[in-house]
UniProtKB/TrEMBL annotation:
Family membership: Belongs to the NFX1 family.
SUPFAM superfamilies cross-referenced by the UniProt entry: RING/U-box
Region (Disordered): 1-31
Pfam short name (any one): zf-NF-X1
Gene: NFXL2_2
Leader sequence segment: none
Organism per entry: Datura stramonium (Jimsonweed)
Keyword terms of this UniProt record: Metal-binding, Repeat, Zinc, Zinc-finger
InterPro entries to which the protein is assigned, alphabetical: NFX1_fam (IPR034078), Znf_NFX1 (IPR000967), Znf_RING (IPR001841)
Protein name from the UniProt record: NF-X1-type zinc finger protein nfxl2
Taxonomy of the source species: Eukaryota, Viridiplantae, Streptophyta, Embryophyta, Tracheophyta
Biased composition (Low complexity): 1-18
Length: 467
C-alpha cells in the first residue's frame, strides 16, 4: 500500500536564486508526484462522491501551489511563495494574501457595526461578522487573522524554502480528521481539506448485523440485508434494506382506540395514539362530578372542589365543605387585578368575573401630549389639535387630530403633470420624480402609414393617430 505520508519531490538541482521573479529562466520545475500520492486514496474512496471531491480539491491545491498559479481572489494578483497568506479552513480552503483578507474583514466588520448603529443596537466584537470572499462562511471580528501561519497552523511565519511546498512548514499536518474519528492527518503540511482517514478499524454495518474491517474514513457501510431493527412501536421490525439513520415510522395498520377509549378506528401503527373530539366525562374520585378535560390518557385526577376551598376572592379558607356545596362569599373587598393592569376590583367578594371596564378616575394626557384631563381609566384621551408636521411627501401637512408624531403616509394623489404632458401622475403623493406615464396610446408616423401602440411618454416624436 502506498504510504499516506507524502510531499512533493525536491528539484533535481539546487535553485540558483531565492527570487520570486516570474521569469521562466528562474522558475524551478518539481517532479509532479501528486497522482502517485493520491492514487491509493482515490482507490479507497470508491463511490463516495464527497470524499473523492475533497481529494481532487487537495490535489488541485498542491498542483497550483507547486507551480505558483495560486491567485488572491480579492486583489486578483498572483500569490508569490514568499507572500504572507491566510486560507479559509472551514469550507472552501481558498488562499488569500494576508493583508488583503485583513482589509476585507475590517471593512466588513465596520459595515456591520454601522448597520447595527442605525438600529440603535450595541453589538460586541463576537456579534460583528465578516464573510469569506469565496464561500461566504461567517467569521466573527475576533477571528480576523493577525499572523501568517503555515497551512496546518502550527508554525507562524513559515520561512520560504525552495525545497518545501510554499506556505508549508514541511512537517506532518497532524490536524484532526473528519467526524472526530480520533486519528490525525498523515500528509505533510498541505493546502485544502484533509483526506479521509486511512486507518483500518472494525466497524458494523448500519443495522449492526455484519461486522467487517474497513478504512476509518469509510467505516459506515450497508450490508444490503433487511434491517430488522425494532421500530419505535416496540412491536414491528424494519423491512427496509440496511440503511443509515433512524428507521422510518411503522406503517402497519390496525384498529386502535383513542386515549379515552370511546372511539376505535383503523390507523397506522406510528399514529396509534390519538385523541377524539369527545369530552372525557368520566366520574372523578368524589363520585359526584365528571372530568371536564378533553380526551386524555391516564387518570382524571382528584376532584378540584375537594379539600381546602376558598371564597371567590381567595381571602378566606374553608375546610370540610362538600365538593357539591357552593362556597359562601366572605364579604371582604374583592381586590383582584382588573384588565387595565393598574387597579384592583373595588367590589365586595363576588362570584363570576370582575367588571371589564375600570372606572377609576385618573389624569391622562392626550396622544400628542398637549392636553391633560381627568377621565375614567378605560377611556382613551384625545384632543382636537391638528398636527402641522409635514408628511413623507414633503408637500402636505399631516392634519391628523391629536397625532403622536408618527404621521401616516400621505393619502393625497400626486396629480403632477407627467413628461408626456397629456396625463397626470396617478400615484399617491411622493417625493422625487414621477414614474413614466403608464398610458398606452395609438401613434403613427408623420405620413400616417404606420400605426402602433406605445407608451404615452414616447410619443413626442410622433403624431397621435386620429383614427
Amino acid at each position: 500500500m502506498t504510504s499516506a505520508t507524502a510531499t512533493l519531490a525536491p528539484p533535481l538541482s539546487p535553485p540558483s536564486s531565492d527570487s520570486d521573479s516570474d521569469s521562466s529562466s528562474h522558475r524551478h520545475h518539481h517532479s509532479d508526484l501528486s497522482s502517485t500520492i493520491f492514487k491509493s486514496y482515490l482507490e479507497l474512496s470508491g463511490d463516495h462522491h464527497n470524499q473523492k471531491h475533497d481529494l481532487i480539491k487537495i490535489q488541485a491545491f498542491l498542483t497550483s501551489s507547486r507551480s505558483g498559479a495560486l491567485s488572491c481572489l480579492i486583489c486578483l494578483e498572483r500569490i508569490r511563495p514568499s507572500d504572507p497568506t491566510w486560507s479559509c479552513s472551514t469550507r472552501c480552503f481558498a488562499v488569500f494574501h494576508l493583508h488583503c483578507i485583513q482589509s476585507w474583514a475590517v471593512q466588513s466588520s465596520n459595515l456591520a457595526a454601522a448597520r447595527a448603529a442605525t438600529r440603535a443596537a450595541t453589538p460586541n466584537d463576537s456579534s460583528l461578522l465578516w464573510h469569506c470572499p469565496k464561500c461566504r462562511i461567517e467569521y466573527s471580528k475576533l477571528q480576523i487573522p493577525k499572523t501568517y501561519f503555515c497551512f496546518c497552523g502550527k508554525l507562524p511565519d513559515p520561512p520560504h524554502d525552495p525545497w518545501v511546498l510554499p506556505h508549508s512548514c514541511g512537517e506532518i499536518c497532524g490536524r484532526p480528521l473528519k467526524y472526530n474519528c480520533g486519528h490525525h492527518c498523515l500528509l505533510l503540511c498541505h493546502p485544502g481539506p484533509c483526506p479521509s482517514c486511512p486507518k483500518l478499524v472494525k466497524s458494523k454495518c448500519f443495522c449492526g448485523a455484519v461486522e467487517d474491517v474497513k478504512r476509518c474514513g469509510f467505516k459506515n457501510f450497508s450490508c444490503n440485508g433487511v434491517c430488522k431493527n425494532l421500530l419505535d412501536c416496540n412491536t414491528h421490525r424494519c423491512n427496509e434494506i440496511c440503511h443509515e439513520g433512524d428507521c422510518p415510522p411503522c406503517k402497519a395498520k390496525g384498529m386502535f382506540k383513542c386515549q379515552c377509549g370511546k372511539v376505535e378506528m383503523k390507523r397506522e401503527c406510528f399514529d396509534r395514539f390519538f385523541r377524539c373530539e369527545n369530552p372525557c366525562e368520566k366520574l372523578l374520585g368524589c363520585g359526584r362530578h365528571k372530568c371536564e378535560k378533553g380526551c386524555h390518557e391516564g387518570d382524571c385526577g382528584d376532584c378540584p372542589l375537594q379539600g381546602k376551598r376558598t371564597c371567590p376572592c381567595g381571602k378566606r379558607v374553608y375546610e370540610g365543605i362538600a365538593c357539591d356545596v357552593a362556597v359562601p362569599v366572605c364579604g371582604a373587598t374583592c381586590g383582584k387585578m382588573l384588565s387595565c393592569g393598574f387597579h384592583r376590583c373595588p367590589e365586595r367578594c363576588h362570584r363570576g368575573p370582575c367588571i371589564e371596564t375600570c372606572r377609576v378616575v385618573v389624569t391622562k394626557s392626550c396622544r400628542c401630549g398637549s392636553f391633560k384631563k381627568q377621565v375614567p381609566c378605560y377611556q382613551d384621551m384625545t384632543c382636537e389639535r391638528k398636527c402641522q408636521k409635514m408628511r413623507d411627501c414633503g408637500r402636505h401637512a399631516c392634519k391628523r387630530r391629536c397625532c403622536d408624531g408618527d404621521c401616516p403616509p400621505c393619502s393625497e394623489m400626486c396629480d403632477r403633470k407627467l413628461r408626456c404632458r397629456n396625463h397626470k401622475c396617478p400615484a399617491p403623493c411622493h417625493r422625487g420624480s414621477c414614474a413614466p406615464c403608464p398610458v398606452m396610446v395609438t401613434i403613427s408616423c408623420l405620413c400616417g402609414e404606420t400605426h402602433f401602440e406605445e407608451l404615452s411618454t414616447h410619443t413626442s416624436l410622433y403624431h397621435p393617430s386620429k383614427s
